[in-house]
Amino acid sequence: MKDAFGLPQSLLVLGGTSEIALATARRLIARRTRAVWLAGRPSPGLDEAAGQLRGLGAEVRTVAFDALDPAAHEDALGKVFAEGDIDMVLLAFGTLGDQAHDERDPGAAVRVAQTNYTGAVSAGLVCAGALQAQGHGSLVVLSSVAGERARRANFIYGSSKAGLDAFAQGLGDALYGTGVHVMVVRPGFVRTRMTAGLPEAPLATTPEAVAAAVELGLRRRAETVWVPGALRMVMSALRHLPRGVFRRLPV
């Protein structure tokens, strides 16, 4: 069960090698979290991440999970929930893709969409059902400001995040009053392996800053979290710009 401040004692991470997810897990372990499941494709990286968290004092287990294999989600994630209640699920998997390449290769573009949206819909519904069955818990979904308005530079990724964001908001409304809390997190440019080598956007942030915002959002039982908070006003302005003006912006 969660503590008096709404922080979880048990955590399931979907996307167990995500730098943002691991920064969040470290922060929560430093507070109260004691049991962590890392779900991801079996790899040395997943094992290393589990070992690092164990070194912080948590009981950590891994489970094989592939966002691109929705048919296996119910079985894989069901095994986790069968072991005991999960206080928080962090949906953190995703891929940026390569916009220039993916425009020329529809198959690659579809892979981005299937990972970021279809896989998230499948895993999100499986976890939401399990959380609802146990009567409590939080589902935290890592979205992106890129989903607020598709930009020429990354509209494939942005459109997949727009779908994810809308899905998570609707799921939160559907679960309202059931004891299950859905929180959508919208970071801007985060300095991670995924963004290495890309031009840094204004208001760039770090995995640790996103983790701090997640913790604060949990304590406040927020439904939407922007990281950094100033992006809320920036994206509100950009979202309402006339299309002809938006098209000419260097974004």
UniProtKB/TrEMBL annotation:
The keyword Oxidoreductase applies. Keywords: Oxidoreductase. GO terms for molecular function: oxidoreductase activity. The keyword Calcium does not apply. Gene3D superfamilies: NAD(P)-binding Rossmann-like Domain (3.40.50.720). Its EC number is 1.1.1.333. PROSITE patterns: ADH_SHORT. PANTHER family: 5-KETO-D-GLUCONATE 5-REDUCTASE (PTHR43669), DECAPRENYLPHOSPHORYL-2-KETO-BETA-D-ERYTHRO-PENTOSE REDUCTASE (PTHR43669:SF6). Belongs to the short-chain dehydrogenases/reductases (SDR) family. This is Decaprenylphospho-beta-D-erythro-pentofuranosid-2-ulose 2-reductase. It comes from Streptomyces marokkonensis.
